[in-house]
Amino acid sequence: LKMSWFWFYLPLHLLMVACLCHSIKAPTTSSQQSFKTDLFNFYHSLILADGKETTIHLLKDIPKRYYFVLEESRALAAFTITVTPCDVPIEWSILVHKASATFLGKAAQGDHGTQEVSKSQKAPSMVSTIFNYKGNSVETYMGMSSHSALYLLEFLSTERDTHITVYLTTDTTSEHLYPELPMDPRIDVISIGHTTVTLTWKHSPPVLQHRENIQYCLLVNEKHNYKSLCAAETAIRSSGMKLPPTSALSLSPYLLEPQQVMILSNSELSIINKASSGEVRQICMGTKNTYTVPNLSPSTQYYFDVFVVNLLTNASAAYTGTFARTLDEPEPKVTELKDGKVIQVVLDGKNQKFYSLQYQARHKKIQFTFQLCHGQVQVHITKNGKTVALENISGLRCFSLKGKLLDTYLVQLRSMEESNSSVKVQVSPHFRKPLFPLLPESLKIKSFSKLRTCNSVTIAWLGTQEESKYCVYKKRTEEDQVWMELQSADMCSGPESRHKSEKVLCKYFYDTHLQRAVTTETIRGLDAGTLYLFDVYLFGPSGIPIRYHSKVVKTRKKC
Fold first, then answer.
1. Which residues contact 368 (CB under 8 A, 6 or more apart)?
2. Are the C-beta atoms of 546 and 469 separated by less than 8 Å?
3. How much is the pTM?
4. What is the CATH number of domain 43-99+126-169?
5. Which helix (H) or strand (E) holds 278?
6. What are the residue ranges of CATH 2.60.40.10 in the chain?
7. In this structure, which of 113, 221, 331, 383 has its CB flanked by the most CB atoms within 10 Å?
8. pLDDT (tens digit, 9 = 90+) per residue, 51-97?
9. In DSSP terms, which residues pair with 551 in a beta bridge?
């Protein structure tokens, strides 16, 4: 390094570091010791790329340093630094060492120059902090200098390991990497419904000039606002989900994760991420700056963030997020129940909403009767606001309740399946003649395999101690239709829904000894090797039928 011509072959930033490190041979004072520490930090730093967004990974409590050189020019030299935290708050600062042209010139003159530099070190340190920040907001620093200068950026995370993005540019005349936000970057809520929220925001200036390269993306969640798309992606990944890159939302092919749902309609692409922590939606709607978010839950607070995205660079800028609470769910319509009257209710399985029935007691003892027609239904009965019954019902179910005159009963019904369910409901005084017949212990139909022939089958079912009418029906079916036939069977429908040709017979029977209340029937005139669906209907005094569970039997092929 004593050869003066060697300095002219070094790049400027290495020349400055070399000169600064060489200068620390000066006598040691407290200020000079601080100066040496600053120079050591510069020496053990990485070069920060100019004109490119750099992703930096930070380990907890371990600082990371980058530097760049601003070279001398006739005019003022300007630069811009944008730091985007992608998770927790971080601390970052900018330090500068300003070196004059005289300093550099004499450093290139050999021993004599080195001595003059050493003398100059008796002056206070030339390293100073020009900016520092702590938080998780996207922060931009714009600086200028009339001298060549070496800048050091120091980053520190004190909460946990994280990552950030840093963008440096010294070419302030070129187009910005990040889309420009309007003067007022707020999102306005213009209407709120039970399941919708309508938002609007002012246009980003680039949208008005380069509509084909810019689009808006909206993020909806129930936790909090995000200050950058980078922070949103990190939070979603940490919850076990995967958010697609914004470029994927410009309708290019994208492979969805199992917990994701993609919806494309009216040129809008929605990605719905589902996890235990809640649902996160990302909707990209092109250059529209008004949007109604659909399919929200009532009485729920949502947070809304809008990002303007440059599709060419994948860089984004965040509007100031907002939040809104959807309106409370309207009180469900209540249907009044009357003594002895039967009503049939169809329940929407998709929305899982309750259907409410109300009854004011005119007797102390009453009985609610439910006949499940299709699906699976949950019954919740309250008396004067207190729960007296809560049960998932199947078949026929009766609840005998005791109370006071004018007690108010509320019955809430809900489908427990995604498909629609149906149920018949009746309430009556306990002493009134029951609407439905006395039921056997089981509504199953049994067939006897050994008694099957090519043209006949024998079936049996349980009866009761009360004389009742039983009707048997049969229907041919196919192997691939059996499951659908059983699933779609309406347990509330009677023989009136059947074709006359399907009727086999009707008979009366009972037995005072319940264990002997069993009947059998051999059905003849069947085709060999054919599947048949058999149904039995039980009629009580009121004439309302109860349907046994269907039985599928196949006749023998050869006899």
1. 381, 389, 398, 399, 401, 409, 411, 425, 426, 427
2. no
3. 0.52
4. 2.60.120.680
5. strand 278-284
6. 176-242+277-330, 445-554
7. 221
8. 888 999 999 999 999 999 887 665 577 889 999 999 899 999 999 98
9. 534
